[in-house]
Design brief:
single chain, about 350 residues, alpha/beta, Rossmann fold, CBS-domain, 2 domains, three-stranded parallel beta sheet, three-stranded mixed beta sheet, 14 helices, 13 strands, about 15% strand
């Protein structure tokens, strides 16, 4: 990281940011265009939170009103109330100080952020929360982030691509989390990612990204002909699930058994309670964990509006894993020649 912002000078090779070598940039100007977040945060204890956030904008010559607006905007962005701006770092919790550190790194809207184990000193519960918050933030701001961690689970969760380094700085493998978990390049990487890498891969895919089992639905008070047709075509009860009774908006009211379908219509009074449900934002790992506590039965999946999206089952998760592994294997055997490798370019 210190090579990127020229705190340590390169002895060979080059690093390009936006297609321009860092060696042609004035170091102080370069650093003001790069956000930097470290484990111990590094806030100035004698400055208020707002003043800490405004350090780089002040160095860039922003006026006071613009700095104040930016500080307030960033406090809101990282989920801290306005009144926090007048407090001092010693008055905040560790998690709050870390959020301020992220806000300060974003103050001048840099195109690149360097994050050196930013959540390493936070307790596990708050660390998970801060990771999720940063992923939410990153989805909004879309920055290029170089994130250093010794925790492979954190790397898998946070990274689009992972570079695994051996002692001495040797680059061993650089690829997507899924490819590294599916095909570690050697024993060192295999040991590093752990024997449970199959389970780790489940955490990479959300239910929204796989083809769910079609749920056979029938609206309350309407005929059941379509439900019978669905069963005859292999969905619904034939796949180990029930027929879902839904309201006019497609939201589930309950599950209907086969004997009830013999009647002309069904209502909420005919339905039994549905077991646990999940949303499409849930990962396959979370879905599998819930199924293991519910006799391994398929789970009903709902979309963001609470409407029926389909079912997920053990078999479906297994097929999805095998499909991803096959795709990753084909990609490694036949790489895209047009795909650029930023690590190679930076060497």
């Amino acid at each position: 990281m210190r090579l990127v912002n020229r705190m340590i000078e390169l002895t060979s090779g080059d690093i390009l940011i936006g297609g321009v070598t860092v060696l042609k940039r004035e170091p102080s100007d370069l650093r003001r265009e790069i956000g930097y977040v470290i484990q111990q945060v590094g806030l100035f204890p004698h400055l208020t939170i707002s003043a800490n956030i405004g350090v780089v904008p002040r160095l860039l010559g922003w006026d006071k009103d613009r700095i104040a607006r930016r500080s307030a905007e960033l406090l809101d962005l990282v989920g801290l109330p306005d009144e926090m701006g007048e407090r001092f770092p010693s008055q905040l919790s560790g998690g709050q100080r870390q959020r301020v550190g992220v806000a300060r790194a974003l103050a001048a809207d840099p195109p690149l952020m360097l994050m050196d184990e930013p959540f390493g000193a936070i307790d596990p519960i708050n660390r998970d929360h801060l990771q999720n918050e940063f992923l939410r933030l990153q989805a909004a701001i879309r920055k290029t982030v170089v994130f250093v961690t010794h925790d492979i689970d954190e790397a898998i969760k946070m990274g689009d691509r992972i570079a695994i380094l051996r002692e001495g700085g040797e680059l061993v493998q650089y690829d997507t989390p899924n490819e590294i978990l599916a095909h570690p390049v050697d024993d060192f990487v295999a040991r590093f990612v752990g024997a449970d890498r199959g389970l780790k891969r489940l955490a990479l895919t959300r239910l929204a990204d796989i083809d769910l089992i079609t749920a056979t639905c029938v609206k309350s008070g309407e005929g059941v002909g379509s439900a019978r047709h669905g069963l005859a075509n292999g969905t619904g009860l034939a796949s180990g699930t029930g027929v879902v009774l839904v309201d006019g908006e497609g939201r589930p009211l309950g599950e209907v058994t086969a004997d009830r379908l013999a009647e002309g219509t069904v209502t909420a009074a005919d339905a039994r309670q549905i077991g646990p449900t999940v949303t499409t934002t849930v990962t396959m790992r979370e879905a599998l964990s819930l199924m293991m506590t519910d006799s391994l039965r398929p789970l009903l999946v709902l979309d963001a509006d609470g409407r029926v999206a389909g079912y997920v089952s053990i078999e479906l998760i297994n097929r999805a894993l095998h499909s991803e592994a096959s795709h990753a294997r084909r990609s490694s055997l036949h790489p895209d020649p047009a795909r650029r490798d930023p690590v190679t370019e930076a060497q």
